[in-house]
Amino acid sequence: MLFNTFEYFIFLPVVFILYWFVFKQSYKWQNGLVLVASYFFYAWWDWRFLGLLALSTLLDFAYGFWVASPNKRKAKMFLWLSIINNLGILAVFKYYNFFATELQTLLGQMGMQCHPVLIDVALPVGISFYTFHGMSYVFDIYRDQLKPVRSFIDYAVFVSFFPLLVAGPIERANHLLPQIQKPRSFDYQQAVQGGRLILWGLFKKVLIADVMAVTADEIFLAPEQFNALSLIIGVLAFSFQIYCDFSGYTDIALGTAKLFGFELLTNFKFPYFSRDIAEFWKRWHISLSSWFRDYLYIPLGGSRNGMAKAVRNTFIIFLVSGFWHGASWNFIVWGFIHACGFLPILLLGRNKKNIHDVVAENSRLPSFKELLQMLVTFSFVSFAWIFFRAKDLNSAYLYTKRIVVDAVNYPTQFLSIPREKTVLVLSVLLVLADWWLRRDNRQLRVPANKLLRWSIYAVLIVLLIRGMAHIDESNSFIYFQF
Q1: Distances (CA, A) of 401 to 114, 227, 333, 413, 415
Q2: Which residues are catalytically annotated?
Q3: Averaged confidence pLDDT in the chain
């Protein structure tokens, strides 16, 4: 089930009414309802993978008790079993075909024939997210940061809570489980904020991301048919498409959770206002970057054992992060590019310089230095998006080459008005809106005048209804495929 469909807006009120009016007498009954609703939500997409979700949940629930053993040798053994099980699920469904075809190619180049059996099955939606939920739960128990959960239903809600099930944010057990394990009361202000976040998320997805996608898809499909200016606008379109698509999903997830009395982790903090790559990764897909930091980078030694190992660990975490996004060399190269962008900042010891403050927090406009830093960082990130979006490495190379060659041969094109004006207009409007909201992404600033506020709501709802009337599978969220 997609957030941006009419089915969801029948499903959500039904669950909301049952949750607060029928099952309100006990949070345990509410948890049971949420679990049933979450499995129904997932089954709406493809019921065949419900068993995989349930099996993954059951295994990590059991591992949690075994990892809590005072016998550290036994605990470590079951920790590794959990890691192997979760990564094994990912390896089979997400990476097996990639490794099999790469091995076939390698052996073919060596003169040996190989015909591996490939798995002809769709990638289970949300598999990268719920397996990471399970691993973090077991990791935290092993490190004595969490006690095993006694209620399977409570744990299953943590893994499969429908707002975050298929595209995050990647929650932590010590953050969400305590909320699941206690009574919840309806908070009107929290619900209002939730409704606003849902509306804002839908606006970003339906009225910006999906519109940007039309231009990005057209240009990336046949870049040889466009000049350098249009190709650059195609990159701009995808940059804002993926941002509005993924952050829009996150806003809807956070808003939906608020309707049920839960507060999820922040996943975006206006990443395109970052002043360097280190700050970008503190603001983009925060739950994933912090997951890799806590469960991969730090266990590898982080930056504690000298600069050489810090550089090694940085490249490992970025390459793994790229591969997490998909079984393709494109994503690995995308991660490598970001590692290269992060490296100078790490070597200069400036990787923590801009991660705690807000750009131009005490002024309306950024300084010239901040503006230049943001433009350079955004340009670097957008360049890397070419490798993320292109169908393969050769296509990414040709796209980049076409920009450079055509720009050098026909520089006067940059003095003309491009035909992709919609992309430019929407980009400017989004940047202005984000700049207005940049001080707090979880508390949307709205006009104090009630009439003006509700007029804006009404216009947005009408536009969304019109936009959602034409939605099909091609309008699914980008991160569903990861």
Answers
A1: 34, 11, 16, 17, 21
A2: 325
A3: 89
